[in-house]
Amino acid sequence: MRNTLSHPQHRALLVLLIATAISFHVSHDSSIGIWAGVAALAIAYVKARLVMLDFMELRHAPRSWRLVFEVSLLVVSTVLIMAYGVSERNAALSLAADSVRPYLCDPG
Question: Residue ranges of the domains in the chain?
């Protein structure tokens, strides 16, 4: 086992498998609400970065290539997390408005 984990790609694969299990567990845990989706997206960022660095071998690429990929991944991940947060907030506001609406529209 020690020999197997000495290879960087094997370590990355082990981290990817563990991160996938954590992401699955977090996304199916309804007790943490909106944070489940945010955590799953953050774990997806870490997994994508591992794939880029270890399997696409950007860890050994010129610094400019690595910078382009790292920044673009960070920007895309940030936009996705923000969009998720906004959509969840709007959904929560819509549910709150629907629960108040019958009282506002009741003619009696």
Answer: 4-105
Q: 94 phi and psi, to 5 degrees? A: -65, -40
Please say whether the dihedral angle defined by the alpha carbons of residues 74, 79, 82 and 83, taken in this order, is positive or negative.
negative
Average of per-residue pLDDT values in the chain: 83
Is the distance from CB of 38 to CB of 85 less than 8 angstroms?
Answer: yes
> Per-residue pLDDT tens for 46-85?
999 999 999 999 999 999 999 999 999 999 999 999 998 8
Distance CA 93, CA 70 (A): 35
Q: Tell me how long the chain is.
A: 108
**CA-based Rg of the chain, rounded to a whole angstrom?**
20
What six digits make up the tokens of 64?
A: 């400019």
